[in-house]
Amino acid sequence: MAIGFMNYRLIDEIMEFLWIKLEDEKMDGVPLDMLDKEFRDYYKNFQEILNILQEFNYIKIKNNKIYFAEKGRARAIHIIRSHRLAERLFTDVLNIKNDANLEKQACSFEHTIDDSIEAAICTLLGHPQICPHGFRIPPGPCCKKSMREFESVIKPLNELKVGESGTCLYFTTNKNDIMHRLMSIGIIPGVELKIHQKMPFNGPIVVQIDQTQYALDPSIAKNIYVRISNSGPKDLQKEPIPGPKRHKRGRRFKGKHRKHD
After folding, report:
1. Nearest CA-CA partner of 244 in 105, 80, 134
2. Which of 29, 47, 139, 207 has its CA 20 to 30 A from that of 166?
3. What residues pair up with 224 in beta bridges, in sequence order?
């Protein structure tokens, strides 16, 4: 079945919506009427869209609920990874702070990059695990193989060498006790951290903030991601990077295309 560019974009948006429901929100199948309600303004015939998705081996339907088929899950991973990696790139490297602009640019980005560019960006950023809004970034082949074809400018704190410094960007732990401990000693996004000493035998890592030193367990330090000092253009290093914040994702597809006549 031949489909146009508009429908390819629509299919990608549907794959993204299914990922959010099935993976982020852990739903046991997405009801057909939920999908129809979410996207009914963007197609003429709901059954036709379902037929296309099934023909592509993107979805399976059981008991009036939609589940990923093998190819659909793979496509959804690519779309989600591209979008959330773009958000990390724009936030951490390009220092884009406007959330609406961030979402708009990431939305365009996700449809245009291929696997090789996606892997290059992921490696450049140090294989981040969450986006700036706190959602999980699915790991790709580059993460699993720990590819180092590009020098990472963003790394976990525990990977820095003694004497190296970096600006704290975000944390990959959701444990409140760890978050409170880090914030209580002044480790927050935007703060400059320097590795003063690393104890042998996987011992504590001594971190310096201004003139004060703190000992961190390596299991905690690996959850602190920093941008290596002097790792990029000077104009990208002038202002501290804001930390991740959660927000309720709204529909991004609305208004892009008119309903078919």
Report:
1. 134
2. 139
3. 171
Provide the whole-model pTM: 0.60
Integer CA distances (angstroms), 177 to 46, 132, 181, 182, in order: 48, 21, 6, 9
- For residue 79, give the nearest of 16, 26, 142 by alpha carbon: 16
Residue labelled with tokens 């990922």 = 19
Which of 127, 166, 128 is CA-nearest to residue 148? 127
Nearest to 49 by CA among 63, 29, 35, 34: 35
How much is the CA Rg of the chain, to the nearest whole Å? 21
Cα torsion through 23, 27, 28, 32, rounded to 10: -110
Q: Please give the Cα distance from 189 to 171 (Å, whole number).
A: 8
Query: C-alpha angle 47/53/56, rounded to 5°?
Result: 140
What is the C-alpha to C-alpha distance for residues 252 and 101, in angstroms, rounded to an integer? Answer: 12
Residue 128 near residue 222, CB atoms below 8 Å = no
